[in-house]
Structure prediction request, 40 residues.
Amino acid sequence: MIVAFTAANLVPRARAHHLWYRRTLAGYPPERRAVIPYLL
Prediction:
């Protein structure tokens, strides 16, 4: 239960930060993923 609650809070935040990095930083690697390598 605590794992699901934590993931529900952290995954969207990681995704939002990842998108911000891609928009803001010119040298941010395009192949980098937000949460799970090669998937998300």
In short: The mean pLDDT is 93.
